[in-house]
Design goal:
139 residues, 4-stranded antiparallel β-sheet, single chain, 4 strands
Length: 139
């Protein structure tokens, strides 16, 4: 993932859809129906920036727990982007969750593009979501 972010993302100037992300970097996405090791996920890039992220939601609680546990191990090893185990979410999956999907595109990503901000964290309007020690954007 780091290789892609460092070497490929900046080169995606024309609108480009990147498909079928590796399972290891897509802990909430459903496994691809015909290609083992990847998920049903896409991201839209333009001008070297991610503008949208979408995927089919994983609804298998056993698979989801294994992925959360793998992410928690990465987090414990120092990976700042890894997530932990979300027991409430797993309980909801165990009770039954219908097939779902998600698409993330919004004003924040468009503001990233218009202000030439390299990270979505630079344009988040809610201070509680900004890393500690980072000042609020000037108005």
């Amino acid at each position: 993932a780091l290789c892609f972010e460092e070497l490929c993302e900046p080169e995606l100037v024309q609108p480009t859809f990147v498909l079928d992300h590796p399972t290891e970097v897509s802990p909430l996405a459903k496994p691809h129906r015909t290609r083992p090791g990847v998920t049903e996920r896409f991201e839209l890039f333009a001008v070297g920036r991610e503008l949208a992220n979408a995927f089919s939601e994983l609804t298998d609680p056993v698979d989801q727990r294994a992925r959360f546990e793998a992410q928690a191990a990465k987090k414990a090893a120092g990976d700042e982007e890894a997530c932990g185990v979300d027991e409430d979410f797993l309980t909801a999956l165990e009770h039954g969750m219908p097939p779902t999907g998600g698409l993330g595109i919004g004003i924040d990503r468009l503001v990233m593009l218009l202000t030439d901000s390299p990270s979505i964290k630079d344009v988040i309007a809610f201070p509680l979501l900004r890393p500690e020690g980072q000042p609020a954007p000037k108005e």
